[in-house]
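Schema walk-through. Below, the input block comes first and the output block second. Nothing else is stored per chain. Lengths vary across the set, and this one has 100 residues.
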Amino acid sequence: MLAAVPSVSRAIGQSVVDMKLLMSPIEMIAWFDIPGTPRPIRFKHKGTVVKVEQILKMSEEKLAGNRVRIYECQSNIDGQLRRFELKFELMTSKWYLYKI
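--- output ---
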């Protein structure tokens, strides 16, 4: 039973490592709540439209002095449940697909 634990942790770590770092600009449809927080709805990447089915986590950080909102999301992409990370630059209002 103890031998199974390392293989599970390797599988979990592998799924995180398998995410590719892209940081590619995307076209986004989003809605803004009353305080002005953007919520991604769907985006286009390489001609494919992806619906954001679930936002798992939202955070904010500063990159080179620019405030950035980070969205950890998941969606069904090509028949597989995939996790990805979106970034929204507050100063420029640009969206990026950061990791997938």
